[in-house]
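[step 3/7] fold_predict: job queued, chain A
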Amino acid sequence: MLSYRHSFHAGNFADVLKHIVQVEILDYMGQKDKVFDYIDTHSGAGLFNLNSEHSQKVGEYLNGIAKLSADKFPELREYFRAIEVHNEANKLDFYPGSPVIAQHFLRDEDKAWLFELHPTDFELLNENIRQSRRVKVKQEDGFAGLLSIVPPISRRAFVLIDPPYEIKTDYDKVFRTVAKAHKKFPTGTYAIWYPVVDRVRIDKLENSFIKSGIKDIQRFELGLSADTDERGMTSSGMIVINPPWTLKKKMQDLLPKLVNAVDDGNGAFFKCDVLVAE
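[step 4/7] structure written:
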């Protein structure tokens, strides 16, 4: 099934959380001299016009990136820089997706592997990404692509996994793929995005990781309202394996501010904890 288009949701509160975590990991990895690989299993189109028909139809960015500003969140300086390079001064017309954000942080010696199956988004990704010998864009299944790459030659990598979860079996597939990848490459940093539409599925996913034997797993979640049986995503989160040592403290300080920014009176909340210790 390839019906999901992220252009309807770009810049929403879930993107904000996902990309803040992504930026913190990329920035940390780039501070060390050793090269690293960036692997994005579900890259999407890469760059999104917030004035497009898709974006304006639902306007999800209005309760996401539009609620934040660089002056009120100085601790997110690098995140805002990655956005500002695609916009005119003091304007927010475009929002970068994870592969474009990653390219902003990758150094000449680092390598990127970008996977996208959707034919239209794959074409857009090709247009929005500066391909080179070190940046590969592939119209392939990202789960299989990840397993074909790890362990990378660099022996140092950041893997971002954020499928649309269109199919209910994707939750189990995410866990199985990460478990296989971790067995082949246990020192990599893995960041898994999840939407909370049905909390039971998320509890099952988290319990699978807790019981997997994988160590050093943290969870960060940002919610707009309490869980509900009604249709729609109420919150989203990131499960991070082998996170930078700086990440948890950064998110502990940041998440309360993010909650205040996106809270529209429906009980916004956050989670920031350790699922499995080191």
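[step 5/7] annotate
The longest strand covers residues 189-196.
The CA atoms of residues 11 and 65 lie 5 Å apart.
exit 0
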